[in-house]
Amino acid sequence: MQRLPIQYIEPVFRPPSEGNSLIIQVTNGCSWNKCTFCDMYTSAPKKFRVRKDAEIIGDLLKVSRAYNGVKRVFLADGDAMVLPTHRLLTILTAIKDLLPSVERVSAYCLPQNLRKKSVADLKLLKDAGLGIVYVGAESGDDLVLQRVNKSETYASTADAVLKINEAGILSSMMILNGLGGKRYSAQHAQNTARLLNECQPDFAATLVVSFPLGMGRFQDGWEGEFEELSQRELFREIEMLIDNTQLTNTIFRSDHASNYLVLKGVLGEDKERLLGEVRTAIINPEKADLREDWQRGL
Ligand SMILES: C[S@@+](CC[C@H](N)C(=O)[O-])C[C@H]1O[C@@H](n2cnc3c(N)ncnc32)[C@H](O)[C@@H]1O
Ligand code: SF4
Question: Is there an atom of ligand 2 within 6 Å of 145 CB?
Answer without folding.
Answer: no
